[in-house]
Amino acid sequence: METMYELLRNYVGPLVMVVTTTVGVQYLAEVGGDNAPTSWSLVGNLHSWTVVFLTLLWALLSLLVPGKLFSGPQTSFGYTPVYKANGFQFFVVSLAAFLTLVLYYPHIPLDLVDNFQNILASCNILAFVLCIYLLLKGKLWPEAVEVLEPKPIVYEFYRGMELHPRMLGVDVKQLTNCRFGLLAWELLVVAFFLAGWERNGFSLAHLVCATLQTIYLAKFYWWETGYFNTLDIILDRAGYYICWGCLVFVPSLYTYASFFLVAHPPLVSTTAAIFFFILGLCAIIGNYRIDWEKEYFRAMDGKCDLWGRPATYIEAEYTSASGPKRSKLLTSGCWGVARHLNYTFELLLALSWCLPGLGYGFWPFLYVIFLTVLLVHRVFRDEDKCRDKYGASWDKYCREVPYRMIPWVF
Length: 410
Ligand code: NDP
Hints:
about 400 residues; mainly alpha; 16 helices; about 65% helix; globular; binds NADPH dihydro-nicotinamide-adenine-dinucleotide phosphate
């Protein structure tokens, strides 16, 4: 007989998550809007479907154009996923194309604001259709044979079946995460800033909010191939959790601080806005530096200097699909200060682009609150993964670098 825990984990949890998050994003768009009665439809409208379809098509085309390929890490069952390596070009061309479009059709930003709930409704439907397809595909014609413990269908729908499914000749997670979700995030924050300008006049604080996110996303696209080594790609299966997350939650919640400021013009002073910008820039540089130190250290196989001294590390062994392998865990530089200092700076950055909403209570800070929960949870997920992979060497690293995110605190 199934225990209460299994019942909650396999049935109730996924079901509650699917229902609350799907409804939740629609509610958020209502709260963040301008209290004027809005009419939106559960099935979206012509405008929303046009926006969603064009974004999806553009995202898909970016992965179909000829270009350099990148091979991600091999899975434990011997499958090597292949991605298109043109992230930064995609970002620059997309942003330029969008701004040109707005130049010719200046009503686009306000149309996007007014139709935001319909757009999210269309994204919700798109995500559901895709996740049902991914469930069937994973069960009936998977990309690679992998033995999975059978689970209830609702759990499989939520978690996903395959790690690296492909569709229409492209990797599904690169399409949904990198090319649809993050592009929608970028274009929406730009549109929300322009819509706020049109509706309320120019606001430096709103510009700071959009600019920090734009720099952050440009940085993401610059490093896109590095993303293929992260938990989202190597641990999360393509299902509701990650695909709905990127198709709906990212355009909704990640853009929320910018969306909120359209109907609630910033109250903070120019000096405060400049301070938030400097704070955000420092956080971006810090986050980038920490990620870079690890990548540089790995690329140099440990033979490098960090902070003016030779890097120190712990030798670690693990077993991969192709046999035993060796790796190194960096214990100096930023990775000697805390095990996930990059997340701390990520949170500081998120805070800095939410701060222009200061004075309106809790709503403008929703993203940073959510991200705190997500990243703290992610620290534990990542550490479980590393402990499984490296065993005693990981425990030794934890003893040498005892703090997770903030030295002497956590
Ligand atoms: P990390 O970049 O922190 O990478 C963690 C991995 O690095 C571990 O699984 C391990 O992988 C390796 N590692 C851990 N410690 C060491 C060490 N001391 N020396 C060498 N390698 C080590 O995690 P993420 O992939 O989660 O984050 C990447 C970026 O994305 C960060 O900047 C983060 O802030 C950002 N991010 C943003 C999110 C958002 O929603 N805004 C969500 C999540 C991340 P291995 O198996 O290779 O050893």
